Amino acid sequence: MMNKNQIIRAVRDSLPQEHPDRGQTVTQLAGLWFKAMRSGRGLQLSDSGHSAFIDADIEYADRSIPQWGVYDMVFGMQLQLRIPCPYYIHSGLHPTEGGSGRPQIRLFDLSVVTWLDLHGSVLEYINSRKRVEDFKCDQ
To answer: Closest by alpha carbon to 113, among 67, 60, 74?
Structure first.
């Protein structure tokens, strides 16, 4: 798994030459692209970060999250702790525009998407990660 600085460098280097973020330092981009600036956990993207990842043509997949999950601080903290890849929370397209109308999490790592799909939902994935990490702590 890459750390936040490695992710920033890789995405910055994948941006088109004329993109304004290409001239920024890793530290500047950490503050611009991520909601939590500190290194390590907390890979939720800001609007600017989401745009940069899209401009860099990074593969992603959208999955539904509970409606209350958008506003629930505990759920947000669990995402920060348990989702090991850059992600973006968005409201989802209106059904008339081809979407579900429900909130979505956009994950920029297809291996994490595979694990999430194996668990059935974002909530089940997070709960399984909590159990594994709790077990590791108890040993």
So the answer is: 60
Reported pTM: 0.84
Do the beta carbons of residue 106 and residue 61 sit within 8 Å? yes
CA distances from 114 to 59, 61, 121, 134 (A): 13, 10, 11, 22
CB contact set of 126 (below 8 Å; sequence gap of 6+): 78, 79, 82, 83
Buried b / exposed e along 29-65 (16+ C-beta atoms within 10 A):
bbebbbbeeeeeebbbbeeebbebbeebeeebbbbeb
Structure tokens at 49: 């970060």
pLDDT tens across 54-78, in order? 999 999 999 988 876 666 788 888 8
